[in-house]
Design a protein that fits this description.
There is one protein chain. The protein is an alpha+beta fold. It has a domain of 94 residues: Anticodon-binding domain (Rossmann fold, 3-Layer(aba) Sandwich), CATH 3.40.50.800. It contains 18 helices and 16 strands. The protein is elongated, with a radius of gyration of 28 Å.
């Protein structure tokens, strides 16, 4: 019995309509990245497992896809030692930031700092598939490394603002600072449990306050420490109001106060630069990745229920683990798959995206093709997308082909057109039809442009 074809859960095929939408997103973010002076790089789909392990925290390490060594991976296994390091030396990348840090260290002598780069590539996570969460998905990362200036943070906020303005998605950017979270850990008497606290409170939106408090207790915090954290997590009001309360809570933490100073500077820059999107201080925002050390960001769509569609933050020593210490950077990552779901759900994709070629030349026979093929080549040279139907079938089938593919113009050139050196053009949407001299390229382009509009 023939097995029914399928793909792994958490992965997807993308047809021509989906790819048109995805390329619309990629082209939009790429144009914005370049407008701010960022250059594109790429890194391999797989990295050495030693590069990836220990960079994403306890939760992240569990989601790494390991790649079994080629050949007989189990031939020389010592079963008295941990199995995975012996049979898996490589893994699929979990994100683009750690490979970027490895790239910077490996190519540091070829790079001018501060180095501003972007990547648009897939990543893989062994997660449980659900709505808006996939095992294979694309990230669009943009980072600046080699400067501690908060102008870099501001630039990323501006990039986010520009991208979602162009995509016509209303968003809110939530901002916090990991130094503030470190200060909170110190204030509640558990400075060694910063990671435990951040991992727990990062789940506030997903599991709610009571479940977060229960997890904090499980991770070793006392009831009094959890009690101190509760009003902070539920703090409401504007930025200045939240800042004032937090300065009192963190009065005894130098690290926490430094984080508040950085937030005050960043929000001042945001106000000065005229960023249009909503930006708010969210003290429950933790970002689960352990390498963040300063500002952290998360972006959510206001009109569509889904998880964060963009996020990132400042990391002060990510390259240090690869031998290049004190190289501070900051970046954000756009989740292309979730952005696609938002655009599709809100009906925000431009209508003409999924259209096929601009023009189809009907196939009227072998002799007519001798006339049509040079015409098609000439129009392609002027920037049009042109198809020639491959088979000499009935015209109705060729009309149907245009309809299925969203091709807006059809040209039927027979012996008369070949003899007179003319070109018949028909707008399939309006039914308007005109005849042009084959040399009248400006007239043809103008007709198609006006009819497209």
């Amino acid at each position: 019995m023939t097995q029914k074809p399928s793909i792994p859960k958490g992965t997807r095929d993308f047809g021509q309509k989906e790819m048109a939408g995805r390329n619309y997103i990629f082209d939009t973010v790429r144009s914005v990245f370049r407008s701010f002076g960022y250059s594109q790089i790429e890194t391999p789909a797989m990295e050495n497992l030693s590069t990836l392990l220990g960079k994403y925290g306890e939760e992240g390490d569990k989601l790494l896809y390991r790649i079994l060594n080629s050949g007989d991976a189990f031939a020389d296994v010592d079963y008295d030692r941990p199995l995975t390091p012996q049979v898996c030396e490589k893994g699929l990348r979990y994100d683009l930031t750690v490979p970027f840090a490895r790239f910077v260290v490996q190519h540091q002598n070829e790079i001018s700092f501060p180095f501003k780069r972007f990547q648009i590539q897939p990543v893989w996570r062994a997660d449980r598939p659900q709505k808006g969460r996939y095992r294979e998905f694309y990230q669009c990362d943009v980072d600046a490394i080699g400067s501690r200036s908060q102008l870099c943070e501001l630039e990323l906020v501006q990039i986010v603002d520009c991208v979602f303005k162009l995509l016509d998605i209303r968003v809110c950017m939530k901002i916090n600072n990991r130094k503030v979270l470190t200060g909170l850990a110190q204030a509640c008497g558990f400075p060694d449990k910063v990671v435990d606290i951040t991992v727990a409170i990062d789940k506030l939106d997903k599991i709610g306050l009571e479940a977060v408090e229960a997890e904090l207790l499980e991770r070793g915090l006392t009831p009094s420490a959890v009690e101190l954290l509760r009003p902070v997590l539920l703090l409401e009001g504007g930025f200045e109001q939240k800042l004032g309360v937090m300065r009192e809570v963190l009065a005894g933490s130098e690290e926490g106060l430094r984080g508040l100073d950085e937030l005050e500077e960043l929000f001042g820059l945001i106000r000065t630069s005229g960023v249009a999107m909503d930006c708010e201080l969210d003290l429950s925002l933790a970002r689960g990745l352990n390498y963040y050390t300063g500002a952290i960001f998360e972006v959510k769509a206001l009109d569509w229920q889904i998880g964060s569609i963009c996020g990132g933050g400042r990391y002060d020593n990510l390259t240090g683990i690869f031998g290049l210490p004190d190289m501070s950077g900051v970046g954000v990552s756009f989740g292309a798959d979730r952005i696609f779901d938002v655009l599709a759900g809100l009906g925000k994709f431009p209508g003409a995206l999924a259209s096929g070629a601009d023009l189809l030349f009907a196939n009227m026979g072998r002799e007519e093709l001798q006339y049509v093929l040079p015409l098609a080549a000439g129009l392609r040279a002027h920037g049009l997308s042109v198809e020639v139907y491959p088979d000499g079938v009935k015209l109705k089938k060729q009309f149907d082909y245009c309809d299925r593919k969203g091709i807006r113009f059809l040209s039927v050139c027979g012996t008369e057109e070949a003899a007179s050196g003319t070109l018949q053009l028909k707008n399939l949407a309006t039914g308007e039809q005109r005849s042009f001299s084959k040399e009248d390229i400006p007239g043809i382009l103008e007709f198609m442009s006006l009819n497209k509009a």
